[in-house]
Amino acid sequence: MEGSHEAIWLQATIDTLRKNKALADSAIEQLSLEQLRVSLHPELNSIAVIMKHVAGNLRSRWTDFLEADGEKPERNRDGEFIDDYADRQAILDDWESGWATLFAALGRLTPADLGREVPIRGCPHPVPLAIQRSITHTSYHLGQIVQTARAVVGEGWRTLTIPRGKSEEYNRETWARG
Known about the structure:
The protein is mainly alpha-helical. Helices cover about 60% and strands about 5% of the residues. Strand 1 and strand 2 form a beta hairpin. Helix 1 runs parallel beside helix 5 and helix 3 runs parallel beside helix 4. The mean pLDDT is about 95.
């Protein structure tokens, strides 16, 4: 990676978010509509609901990121915890909409923007802190998605990372390639 430290950091942020989203997408692909709606406990959200919340949060935080408060007045956060999707495609479309908003906004940021502040719920945040806050929140929920998917799929689960008991084999193959 070439460029200023700020440019490298911005690109690393985008790459990290894309990689984390890809893990969640790989888990989601393994699930039927019915499985997306499974809640492991009455007090836990289904994957569909987590996806809806993440999408709503990303749209709110990243729409007009540098110009408007990250908590938009039209956001219905409480409604994000109600699964009212018509079908699987509606879930996926909503999910992708949130991520598209995030990646479009990040793609427009310049290294100079890192010195600015943005409000979230009326509280000013330096841009890097606002970005880290979003990464942390999103990653928390992506972990929930993967863990829940793993439990729901059960025996047919296709592992997303190095399979259990295969670390040495993976390391040998990876390091052999340089």
